[in-house]
Amino acid sequence: MDGPTEAEHAGRAAVRRQAQGMNHHEAAKAFHRLAARADSPAPEDIGEPSAEPDGGRRAAELAEWERVVDQLAGHAGTYDVESDPYVQGERAAADES
Questions:
Q1: Which of 17, 23, 45, 89 is a Cys-bridge partner for 41, taking CB atoms 3.0 to 4.6 Å apart?
Q2: What's the whole-model pTM score?
C-alpha cells in the first residue's frame, strides 16, 4: 500500500476538526475518552487487519489524538490546524505531487 487509506485520512481529519481550539488538557481528555471505548483497538493490535474492521480509521484517530496531545505538551496555547507543522508538511507534499 502506498499511503494512508481513505478511512485513515477521514479519521485524522475528524480529529483535527475536533481538536481545533483545544488546549493540552482538553485534547488529552478526548484522547483518553476515545482510547477507553470498547471498540477501540488495543495498542498491540493496531496494524492487524482483524483489529481494524473500519479500514484503520479508529487507529488513525487514536494516533492523531496522541500526536496532537504531544504537540500541545510543548506550549501553553491551543491547537490550530493552520499552524500544525505536521499538517503543513502534508499539504506541501500534496502540492508537490
A1: 45
A2: 0.84
